[in-house]
Amino acid sequence: MRLRAAVRNSRAVIGRSLHQVMALVSSDNELYASFYGQRRAGARRAEDTAVERERLIADNLLFPHYHEEIRFAALSLTNEGVRYYGPCSIVLSEIALRNRTTVFEKNSVEFCREHRLGVEAPLPPGYRAVWDARDKLAAAKLHGQLKPDDMERDFQRLLLSNDQQACADFVEVHIYGPLHRRAIASITVDEPATASDEALVIELEKRAAEVDARVVRKHAGS
């Protein structure tokens, strides 16, 4: 199947702001912290909201006793991540993640909400796969949406839909353990709109080059 062949070459991509990406690539001592790591470090405020409570439930269902170690990304056939999480896309090196990564059918919080999962309703089997079987999971999810004349650009649209940013549909990537700048293969950034952003991107290019990571500027409309 052409979809499976394409997804075998898919990448794990993290969407973040330009400033967040700059902080990560600035030094080998910087680590990409999990949601819970940010809270422990005092870098993120705990919120008593429905979404945060749903996140706690979903994470404990999917990652019992190790949820604090998980970093999230999205599966992509291009260098584009979920723009809802930030306009800069960090493409991770496969060698840095393949032995500690699984993929999940969709955003795990959305999945648990839709399936009404909780203490009395555990996670059903069949929606998660190891990294090397990501093509099988994608095919199982998307086979009903495929058309005979679909091209690879259509596969990307099906795999990662940014049509409604807050409700983007994508295959979620779960990475166990820390990430640092040497796990980055490339970074895609929007073409800077201001002089200050241009200066930041130039510095980003210098820092990324220290670990042989490319910075790709994405022009508007491309």
Q: What does this 3D model show about the protein?
A:
The chain is an alpha+beta fold and 222 residues long. The protein has eight helices and ten strands. It has helices at 2-7, 18-25, 35-40, 50-62, 108-114, 134-142, 152-159, 195-209; strands at 11-16, 70-76, 88-92, 101-104, 128-130, 160-161, 169-170, 172-176, 184-190, 214-218. Strands 5-4-8-2-1-3-9-10 form an eight-stranded mixed sheet. Helix 8 (195-209) links the parallel strand 9 and strand 10 (214-218). Helix 2 (18-25) runs parallel beside helix 8 (195-209) and helix 4 (50-62) packs across helix 5 (108-114). The longest helix is centred in the C-terminal third of the chain and has 15 residues, at 195-209. It is globular, with a radius of gyration of 18 Å. 29% of the residues are buried.
What is the oligomer described by this structure? single chain
Euclidean distance between termini CA atoms: 28 Å
Q: Strand fraction band?
A: 15-25%
Write down the overall geometry.
globular
Order of helices and strands: HEHHHEEEHEHHEEEEHE
Cα-atom Rg, whole angstroms?
18 Å
Uncertain stretches = none
Largest sheet: 8 strands, mixed
What is the number of helices?
Answer: 8
Mean pLDDT: 88
Which sequence of strands runs across the widest sheet?
Answer: 5-4-8-2-1-3-9-10
Please state the structural category: alpha+beta
Query: How many strands?
Result: 10
Which range best describes the helical content: under 10%, 10-25%, 25-40%, 40-55%, 55-70% or over 70%?
A: 25-40%
